[in-house]
Design brief:
By secondary structure, this protein is mainly beta. Helices cover 12% and strands 37% of the residues. The protein has a six-stranded antiparallel beta sheet, with no helix packed on it. The radius of gyration is 19 Å and the shape is globular.
């Protein structure tokens, strides 16, 4: 387990306390970075500088995720490159107000701008106020020229596709998708490790930079992928599959158990969305790790094949596989 990196945001709130986060008094915490290994971040994201998760307990308590990768190499990362930054960034987001309308670098933009990095992400909706929405993708018939005009006159939100926020649905947002998390929505986010964001509209808020020219170069003018949700009665299955990661949802009744994987080609990330569980990922004599709601665990590659999750109560979790 890792110490969360808590970020105060103008649009943040206090609901991350429901996920076991100890929030500073009076702060509007919008993001809890659960698993991070970034060499640098944007000034408007994590405030610039590196952002690296610190291990909370065990033999490497106080060390960073980056330290663990350096020490354990293939034992932790398997067939993945242990000399590169960890290839995922895991967060919880609490939007008490609308997030900015934004886009992340497209593949073409990232290829020609070394300082920009792709950011493909997905949102699993944990809580949603009545009537809340997320915005993703551009309505049919909206051209770049029309979109730019509407940015200037403040009506650009009307060009976005607004989708009702439904608890249990997962939304895939490939790089280049124009999007915004709407007010009242709490999500778990799985993404590629990038903090590059181009804002096009900030709901009348002042003091935060917009990046309109860069955004217009990156936006994919079209619909975004549809929402994914486990069919009624199904207790596990894939929600999102990208070239970078796969996200599966698993529900276990009290006492239920499930293996982590059938191979050890790479580590697995577990995100506990509800309930609580014990995670065994080692020899029979090793103590299990307790994982309550809001816990994110990284299971080393050399422990994946022998590991299993045992639910103490009805437990819902995401299992993330790196590709």
């Amino acid at each position: 387990m890792f110490e969360p990196i808590l970020l105060d945001k103008v649009w943040g709130g206090r609901r991350l306390e429901r996920l076991g986060k100890k929030l500073p008094p009076g702060a509007k915490i919008g993001e809890s970075w659960e698993l991070a290994d970034l060499d640098s971040t944007s000034a408007s994201g994590a405030g610039g500088g590196a952002a690296r998760s610190v291990i909370a307990s065990g033999l490497l308590a106080g060390k960073t995720l980056h330290d663990a990768m350096t020490l354990w190499k293939r034992d932790l990362m398997g067939s993945l490159d242990a000399d590169r930054p960890f290839p995922l960034l895991i967060k919880f987001l609490d939007a008490s107000e609308n997030l900015s309308v934004q886009v992340h670098p497209s593949p073409a933009y990232a290829a020609s701008h070394p300082e920009a990095h792709l950011k493909t992400e997905c949102w699993y909706i944990l809580d949603a106020a009545p009537g809340s929405v997320i915005y993703k993708g551009i309505k049919p018939g909206v051209t770049p020229e029309l979109f730019a005009k509407h940015i200037k006159d403040g009506t650009v939100v009307n060009d976005l596709v607004a989708v009702p926020a439904v608890v249990g649905e997962c939304h895939n947002l490939p790089s280049g998708t124009c999007h915004a998390l709407g007010a009242g929505v709490l999500v778990a986010e799985v993404q590629t490790p990038s903090d590059t964001t181009f804002r096009v509209f900030d709901w009348g808020r002042t003091g935060r930079e917009l990046h309109i020219d860069q955004a217009l170069e990156c936006i994919d003018f079209g619909p975004a992928p549809g929402a994914a949700k486990l069919p009624k009665g199904k207790v596990s299955g894939q929600l999102v599959g990208t070239e970078f990661f796969r996200v599966d949802e698993v529900f276990l009744p009290a006492g239920g158990r499930v293996p982590l994987a059938e191979s050890n080609d790479g580590p697995r990330v577990l995100i506990v969305l509800s309930g609580s569980a014990s995670v065994r990922a080692g020899s029979a004599g090793d103590e299990p790790v307790h994982a309550g709601v809001g816990t994110t665990l990284l299971i080393p590659a050399n422990r994946v094949a022998s590991g299993q999750v045992i639910a103490k109560a009805g437990t819902r979790l995401l299992v993330v596989t790196i590709r």
